[in-house]
Structure formats: C-alpha cells, structure tokens
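Chain A, query sequence.
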Amino acid sequence: MKYLIADNLSSLTESQLEVMLEALPVWRRNRVLRFKHFKGRAQSTQAFVLLQQLMVEEYGISSIPEFTYNEHGKPYFSSLKHIHFNMSHCSNAVICAVDRNPVGVDIEQVGRFSESLARHVLNDEEYLAVVKSSSPDVAFIRFWTQKESLVKLTGAGIRDNMKNILLPEFRQNIQISTTECLEKGYVYSIATCR
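Chain A, predicted structure.
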C-alpha cells in the first residue's frame, strides 16, 4: 500500500488551480467543475493529482481510466480490477492511497469536540476513552477516521450504527493505522486488508 498527502491547499491560488485543471482528463475536469466553490474544486483536483502520481509510481500507468462507482459512491476502476484506491479530504489536506487489495482512507481536521456526535457514533468504551482523554477533540477524531476508513475500505457507505464497527468481529483481517499531524491540525487513518 502506498499513499500521498497534500496539506497545502490553503496556499493554492486560482491560477495554479486552473493550470492543474487543464492537465486533467476531460471526464475528471467535468466532474471537478460541478463544484461551485474554489475549495471543493481544489480538493477534488488535488486528490486526482495525487492518484495520478501514485499510479505512475506504483504501476507505471499514466492514463487513468474513468471511475466507476458502486451503489454507495465508492470509486473504482472497472478496467483495472487489480488496483484499488481511495481518497479523502478535509479543509486543508487531501490523502490518496493505492493498493492491490481494498483500501480505505479518511482525513479530518481536528475540531471542537461534540458530545452529541460522540454519543451517536461511539460505543460506551470509546466514549469513555474520549472524555477521559487530555484532548477529547483529538481522541474523537482518531476514532472517527478509523471508522470512516473502515467503511470506505468495505465500500458499504455510512452505516446507521457506527458504534460497534471497530469491534474485532467487524474488522477481521483488516488493519487500521492512524496518524496525528497536530502541527497541521489533522488526523488520518488508513484501513487495509491483511
């Protein structure tokens, strides 16, 4: 598994984005241009640029085929079924990963801790770990990105009950690694099949 992160989106200018957009395949450019605001366009463009770089470095593929999407919106290559990828973004960072096995990634900005959201998505044990933590905001985002990366790995979409998704019976043969980049204000998790 190989991944890349771009965490300088706030320094990207409109003219730089225009140059990047021109280099995208028409199908991807058209999808990016559906975003009304600069931030969404920048995130979507940068995610694809990272995917292009990884595809060249890992597989020698410079022309990326158009994405197909599963019923929950997870993109995949219908013509390259042996290559799996996943992308995620937050306000100032984008992550993309590729692998020969399914992969899921999530990156989130560390924000203010929300007790109501935590009670909705964390089980009792996780909730206690978060509220007893010296940094509940970071502890919560760790769990959140782990859960999201697992859901994105499986391609099942957001589930009604996220509370128990990290229990061993739900993640057999799945490894999740989490990294805190607190100096840049984000946390990311990567879920892979063992």
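The chain has six helices and eight strands. Strands lie at 2-6, 68-69, 75-76, 84-89, 94-99, 103-109, 174-181, 186-193.
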